[in-house]
Amino acid sequence: MQQPYSTPSAGRVLVVDDDPTVAEVVAGYLSRAGHAVDRAADGPSALASAAGQWPDLVVLDLMLPGMDGLEVCARLRERGPVPVIMLTARGDEEDRVLGLEVGADDYVTKPFSPRELVLRVESVLRRARPAAQAPPGSGPLAAAGLTLDAAARRATKDGAELALTLREFDLLAFLLRHPGRAFGREELMREVWGWDFGDLSTVTVHVRRLRGKIEDDPARPRLIRTVWGVGYRFEPDASVGPEEC
């Protein structure tokens, strides 16, 4: 199986949509932007395509015949890490949250601008590449039993490796670099996601998922505190402050 992120400037994108018109338009825009594009019209075909040529990113329709996009996303993630942008024809928050809960890194609601989708794809690919995450001279971060190596895109808690999605990793890295400071959801979306617009529920869901992986008791979070009326703050133990390893 080909390893992800094999090209420095463009990616291999798997477009999964049962609407041939949507798939053709999306594939065309991505191809013109320099990406290699594979297409699949249903879940089984998508899994078979990924098995033959592992993609750098998947653009995945939520409403697929038979095996829906949520199941396809979960099965892909069982095989290996891959960024996923979910497409949904419905604007209900529940659908968007479901996509994020199974590990989608982003979602776009139909109808959408193909140019915007290309920008989202390139933003996710750029952040997924290890080199993009580690400023020159920066070392691993450590706080409260957590360690994070941005260059290796590896995070651990008390020595055990954490299975973080792309967005969860980026969010944890940002919070570790700014302990004790409160950030609003709009600010997190801009600083971590690189977006000046978007649905703020995306941030809420990713914070909840990250808490579920790093907190001893996610129902009573100690590390990622809610600052009412503002947003969130990373608060490591006073005796174990964040440090550059």
The average pLDDT score comes to 82
Total number of β-strand segments? Answer: 13
Global morphology: globular
Could you give the order of the helices and strands?
A: EHEHEHEHEHEEEEHEHHEEE
Termini separation (Å)?
A: 34 Å
Low-confidence stretches: 1-8, 238-245
Q: Radius of gyration from the CA trace? A: 18 Å
Treating each run of at least 4 consecutive H or I residues as one helix, how many helices? 8
Beta strand %: 15-25%
Structural class: alpha/beta
Roughly what percent helix?
A: 25-40%
User: Reading side by side through the largest sheet, how are the strands ordered?
Assistant: 2-1-3-4-5
Characterize the largest beta sheet: strand count, sense, and whether it forms a barrel: 5 strands, parallel
Mind explaining what this structure looks like?
The chain has helices at 20-32, 43-52, 69-79, 93-101, 114-128, 166-177, 185-193, 201-214; strands at residues 12-16, 36-40, 57-61, 84-88, 106-109, 141-143, 146-149, 154-157, 160-161, 182-184, 224-227, 231-234, 243-244. With 245 residues, the chain is α/β, with parallel strands linked by helices. The strands form 3 sheets. Strands 2-1-3-4-5 form a 5-stranded parallel beta sheet, with helices on both faces. A 5-stranded antiparallel beta sheet has the order 9-8-7-6-13, with helices on one face. Strand 4, helix 4 (93-101) and strand 5 form a beta-alpha-beta unit. Residues 1-8 and 238-245 have low confidence and may be disordered.
